[in-house]
Amino acid sequence: MEALFSYGTLQQSQVQLDNFGRLLDGEADYLVGYRLGQVRITDPEVLKSSGKALHPILIYTANPDDQVAGSVFFITQQELARADSYEVADYVRQEAKLKSGKTCWIYTASDSANILKE
């Protein structure tokens, strides 16, 4: 099983059903050294599934005071590939260590991410 940290739309029931065909059970955790920004989604399938045009995105800060709350889901490699397909080009999957010490996959801002100004 693969551990995936979710802080955004992958926590939504409809997004889980659309992408994995099931609801996921998660464990609460925190990602340290990141904050959340927002990106505008234009992919019609992602918009239909999430119902939202603005999605949160992780921005690396290296500041230990910055923390993002989320859930760790344990999914198959096939489900991880589906999650990769769901995430648009603004996101890139990387390994990270959570506050609990668990290592998991995260989706963070890619170099080409069009992060909205605050």
Textual characterization of the structure:
Residues 4-111 form the Gamma-glutamylcyclotransferase AIG2-like domain. With 118 residues, the protein is α+β, with helices and mostly antiparallel strands. The chain has one domain (2-109): Hypothetical upf0131 protein ytfp (Roll), CATH 3.10.490. 21% of the residues lie in helices and 42% in strands. It has three helices and seven strands. The strands form three sheets. A three-stranded antiparallel β-sheet has the order 1-5-2. The chain has a two-stranded antiparallel ribbon with strand order 3-4. A hairpin with a 5-residue loop joins strand 6 and strand 7. The protein starts with a strand and ends in a 9-residue tail after the last strand.
Structural class: alpha+beta
Strand ordering within the main sheet: 1-5-2
CATH top level assignment: Alpha Beta
Radius of gyration: 13 Å
Question: And the CATH topology?
Answer: Hypothetical upf0131 protein ytfp
Oligomer: single chain
Shape: globular
Main sheet?
Answer: 3 strands, antiparallel
**From the coordinates shown, what is the CATH architecture?**
Roll
State the fourth-level CATH superfamily. Gamma-glutamyl cyclotransferase-like
Keywords: Ligase
Domain Gamma-glutamylcyclotransferase AIG2-like: 4-111
Organism: Pseudoalteromonas rubra
InterPro entries: AIG2-like_dom, GGCT-like, GGCT-like_sf
